[in-house]
Amino acid sequence: MSTENSKFKEFNFAEGELLLINKPYKWTSFDVVGKIRNSLKPLKLKVGHAGTLDPLATGLLIICTGKLTKRIDTFQAEEKEYTGTMVLGATTPSFDMETEVDKTFDINQISNEQIYASTAQFTGDIEQYPPAHSAVKINGERLYVKARLGEEVELRKRFVTVPEFEITRIELPEIDFRIVCSKGTYIRSLVSDFGKALNNGAYLSKLTRTRSGSFLLSDAFEVLELVNYIRSKKEEAKAETEV
Questions:
Q1: Where is the active site (predicted)?
Q2: What is the pLDDT of residues 180-194, one digit of tens each?
Q3: Could you give phi then psi for residue 15, rounded to 5 degrees?
Q4: Of 69, 72, 119, 226, whose CB is crowded by the most CB atoms within 10 A?
Q5: How confident is the model over 227-236, as pLDDT tens digits?
Q6: What dihedral angle (degrees, nearest 10) is formed by the CA atoms of 206, 86, 130, 153?
Q7: d(Cα 218, Cα 227) in Å, to the nearest integer?
């Protein structure tokens, strides 16, 4: 997206703005919120996000400012779409690349037909458990904190809906996919369960959120692109008051 001013509208952050951001790899969702909040100083505004993305995931993050933060729960509840890559034949404790491979499996006997057929049991209303390495809270503490301390926790089953689960590329051990799902779906858990359905193992190696409700990643700002624009507008306003 161009940084030319013609590409940006005039924002009213205090009244409330919904900002579409492409979250960078290894940034937390809170990192993005903090970066935007800091760029708005000295304004003291509420800034929040509508739906956490794991640090190793990229893609669409909805940021709300000012009065619009009251609608975060509404935006967060909307259907999501993701594209990603799983690695078949191995597992990790976190179900993704945050932790090292702990088990490996033979994938020589797994056919493309088996892979395509296995998507059926993960389409519709399904049950899943959140990963132990996740932001879910148990007794007020994040699961990933307990997991990193080596503590065992009792995971609670959740029910989610997956209207679409499409395999888009198979080049074993990698499998690319596209998923449309309800709020609260853990793609890492789905990938891990997918591996088990094949009597094998799988972990998530790449994930991008491409849509949330009617909002698209293709319309999103890069974080620094937006931050630099906000700062430039502040400098313009400051220069005008000094004239």
A1: 54
A2: 999 999 999 999 999
A3: -65, -35
A4: 226
A5: 998 888 877 7
A6: -100
A7: 18
